[in-house]
């Protein structure tokens, strides 16, 4: 990943001077390196900026080291086409620069200590489209192991913070309903481009072809998935569609293991979690986030044994936080929450078809989005062939089948 020539010390200095409201800031040295490994981020190019700066404070010159993240919209190829047409970058820039700071203030005013996101320093809507945020790594935050999946402690922490995120969005929407007009699409929407639709169709078709080789399963399941691939995107649009009489929140929209960072104490016990990547935020049922999380992020042991515990933690935290924030909206009962999760269960199925393979793929077999979606439209992803993915899916697919999730609309 080449570093763009414009991402230099004079540019970063100008960004910092404006963000800090301090014209004495001088960047004295700076290095830029890729911030993520291949397979860790599919919808943007990330650069870590390490710099030394000086500033004048009370007549004295102070020197400090800072680390920032520059997140750039993809340039060229099918990846740029898909991300640009979906409007994902505009959503993230609006969330980071406008919506999240208000949600954070609502929480802080109510005495909640949760931090929703890194501080955003700059957004640029013109090409080259990008944003610059504080790097969370110096504060001790890091990614969990996506291949291992999240253990129960990580899952409970993540789901608590998701409930706080959702509750603060309810409080925000009660103050300003117009805010949701910016967040209408999400991942599944009838107005998305054919490139987006084809990604989900082709990846589901690829799964069907691989499942045909799995002797553990009836050939009927592969045949069902193959037929389903033709309408998989439409079915996902239907189950994620906004219903105004539902309990609705601003969803993170891409709530999987790589879009959350964790911090640990000296015994390596997880103590804090924070969200990253707000490109697919949308207003709708919280079932979307919850089911996407279950489909992509817990270890299989957690997925099998602790689902209800995690759901109850979400429900308790949501209800408690909405009370603290003095929301007038009525939170769903636990039975209502379970009911909406059943109605929208296909969200979890499609996440396991298309995103879970990317989570579990061995690092030696990782392909970029550009490599997976060739220009002739053929989808090639070795992730479906992995042993760990096969182990999870040979258990889940018969379950999905029994729930009617592999049937056509």
Written description of the protein model:
The two termini are 41 Å apart. With 409 residues, the chain is an alpha+beta fold. It has 2 domains: 64 residues; 299 residues, Aminoglycoside 3'-phosphotransferase, Chain: A, domain 2 (Alpha-Beta Complex), CATH 3.90.1200. It is built from 15 helices and 9 strands. The strands form 3 sheets. Strands 1-2-3-5-4 form a 5-stranded antiparallel sheet, with helices on both faces. A two-stranded antiparallel sheet has the order 6-9. A two-stranded antiparallel sheet has the order 7-8.
How would the blueprint of this fold be written?
Layout: H1 9-20, E1 26-34, E2 45-57, E3 60-72, H2 77-86, H3 88-109, E4 120-124, E5 130-134, H4 152-175, H5 194-211, H6 219-228, H7 232-240, E6 249-251, E7 260-264, E8 270-275, E9 282-284, H8 287-296, H9 300-305, H10 307-324, H11 334-343, H12 346-354, H13 356-360, H14 369-372, H15 387-402
Antiparallel strand pairs: 1-2, 2-3, 3-5, 4-5, 6-9, 7-8
InterPro entries: CHK_kinase-like, EcKL, Kinase-like_dom_sf
Pfam family, one: EcKL
Domain CHK kinase-like: 131-324
Write a brief caption for the model.
The protein has helices spanning 9-20, 77-86, 88-109, 152-175, 194-211, 219-228, 232-240, 287-296, 300-305, 307-324, 334-343, 346-354, 356-360, 369-372, 387-402, and strands at 26-34, 45-57, 60-72, 120-124, 130-134, 249-251, 260-264, 270-275, 282-284. The chain is an alpha+beta fold and 409 residues long.
């Amino acid at each position: 990943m080449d570093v763009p020539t414009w991402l230099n010390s004079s540019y970063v200095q100008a960004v910092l001077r404006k963000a800090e409201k301090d014209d004495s800031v001088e960047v004295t040295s700076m290095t830029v390196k890729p911030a993520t490994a291949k397979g860790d981020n599919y919808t943007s190019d990330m650069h870590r900026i390490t710099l030394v700066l000086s500033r004048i404070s009370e007549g004295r010159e102070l020197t400090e080291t800072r680390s920032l993240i520059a997140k750039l919209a993809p340039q060229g190829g099918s990846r740029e086409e898909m991300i640009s047409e979906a409007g994902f970058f505009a959503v993230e820039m609006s969330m980071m620069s406008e919506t999240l700071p208000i949600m954070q203030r609502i929480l802080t005013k109510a005495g909640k200590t949760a931090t929703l996101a890194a501080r955003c320093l700059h957004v640029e809507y013109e090409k080259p489209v990008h944003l610059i945020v504080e790097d969370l790594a110096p504060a001790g935050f890091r990614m969990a192991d996506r291949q291992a999946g999240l253990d129960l402690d990580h899952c409970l922490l993540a789901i608590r913070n998701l409930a706080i995120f959702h509750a603060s969005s309810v409080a925000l929407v009660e103050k300003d309903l117009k805010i949701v007009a910016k967040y209408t699409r999400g991942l599944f929407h009838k107005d998305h481009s054919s490139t987006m639709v084809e990604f989900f169709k082709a990846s589901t078709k690829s799964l069907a072809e691989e499942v045909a080789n799995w002797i553990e399963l009836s050939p009927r399941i592969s045949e069902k998935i193959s037929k389903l691939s033709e309408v998989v995107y439409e079915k996902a649009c239907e189950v994620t569609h906004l219903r105004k009489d539902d309990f609705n929140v601003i969803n993170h929209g891409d709530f999987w293991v790589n879009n959350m960072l964790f911090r640990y104490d000296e015994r390596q016990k997880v103590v804090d979690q924070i969200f990253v990547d707000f490109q697919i935020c949308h207003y709708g049922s919280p079932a979307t986030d919850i089911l996407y999380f279950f489909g992509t992020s817990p270890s299989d042991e957690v997925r099998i044994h602790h689902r209800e515990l995690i759901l109850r933690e979400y429900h308790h935290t949501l209800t408690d936080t909405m009370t603290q924030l003095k929301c007038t909206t009525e939170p769903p009962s636990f039975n209502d929450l379970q009911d909406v999760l059943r109605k929208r269960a296909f969200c979890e199925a499609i996440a396991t078809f298309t995103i879970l393979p990317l989570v579990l793929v061995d690092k030696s077999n990782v392909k970029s989005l550009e490599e997976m979606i060739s220009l002739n439209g053929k989808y090639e992803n070795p992730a479906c062939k992995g042993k760990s993915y096969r182990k999870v899916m040979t258990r889940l697919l018969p379950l999905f089948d029994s729930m009617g999730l592999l049937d056509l609309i």
